[in-house]
Specification:
Chain lengths: ~80, ~250
Amino acid sequence: MATIQDRISKIVSERLGVDESEVKREATFKDDLGADSLDVVELVMELEDEFDLEISDEDAEKIGTVGDVVDYIERHQ
Amino acid sequence: MKGQHALVTGGSRGIGKAICLELASQGVHVAVNYSGNKEKAEQVADECRTYGVEAMTIQANVADSASVQSMVKTVMGEFGAIEILVNNAGITRDTLIMRMKEEDFDAVIDTNLKGVFNCAKAVTRPMMKQRYGRIINISSVVGVLGNAGQANYVASKAGVIGLTKSLARELANRNIRANAVAPGFIQTEMTDKLPEDTKGELLKQIPLGELGKPEDVAKVVAFLASDAASYMTGQTLHVDGGMVMP
């Protein structure tokens, strides 16, 4: 079973068309990975499906970096 | 459009009914939303099925976001996709501003404008995933011209045009198009309520000299939903016998 980090990296790299090696903890979605705001909304939707959880709009707005997502999902699994 | 799935709000009568039937006649499966009249909605669904498509009815008050979310979930469960959303549900509470109660204003805005927001928001998720969607919002000629005695309705319908433009811009790069249709005076229960002298005055303002039929609007809605309109988004098409010439 892949780790949470691996699963997230895979989704992010597929969705944003970046290499998995670029999906580092400190990478920001918008500046480092080139996501627009709709990309982030879509990522959140896909993560909700992958991890079978619901991320509230308030929490989704706070997501800036890959690390934010990993931490959030680890906390809520 | 054959084989696609449409959700039409306020589909049990008037323009909404004509839209359901027009889409069905072009091979689109139709979910007929209604707020109160289940029997009429069932009749529309039955008539849709005579074209050999699937049809379902679904009750929801579009002004209520929870109700809308559950509607979209049910339709997605039944159809598996919603490619076309037609926001048609609308009400009137006509009176002069001096006499208009706050609740008259709110009720019309909640159904006609917030209802469009609620439904568009609810289908955005499946449409974004599909990378395909067509949203058609029904505005009105009076949303462009203004009309005495209809401040609430006019405000809601003008709002729909602005909302359509925002939807179009936000969702364009996900292959979701949003357009509006602004019907003029169309023969429906809504316009039957107008006094005869008002109708006479109205006819003088219509270059084509007669009220429109619900089918006239439905055909333009179907055009916007089809790939014939694939390079159009954010537009308002006027189906009003020439009342507005923008």
